Fold this sequence. Notes:
Blueprint: H1 2-15, E1 26-28, E2 39-41, H2 57-67, E3 71-75, H3 88-99, E4 103-107, H4 109-117, E5 127-129, H5 132-140, H6 145-151
Parallel strand pairs: 3-4, 4-5
Antiparallel strand pairs: 1-2
Amino acid sequence: MHWRKVTDVMAEAERRESTLVLPVDVLAARNSAPTRSSTWCRPTAFRRPGGSRCRPATRELFASKLADAGTIFWNGPVGVFEFPAFAGGTKAVAEAVIASPAFSVLGGGDSAAAVRQAGLPEDGFSHISTGGGASLEFLEGKELPGVAVLES
Length: 152
């Protein structure tokens, strides 16, 4: 079912003539315990632990796309940032967003915590919202009870 949703998103991006940027490599391990060994692999190698090795090219790919963005809305860490072995992707994306001249919104308490944990400046973002789910619902056009009360 999750793969169906991914293909729906990809089809929608194509219909809108948008660019959907997906990871080209991931840091994979049998579980997220900080003592486990991990390896860089293609996303398609997930079912084969220790799959084909490759460089962390996704970080460079995402950074290049974010450098050209006019607006960035980032909701959710990129992986299990709580463990140092898996925090690099989240930190790399945060650094790329901060380096970008784009208007940037960081959504979600976990995202804000990841930025703080990485020692990066929170003022590098135009806005930080700790309500990640609510931010996404707002973008979907759903009525938020707290906002509705303020508007009335």
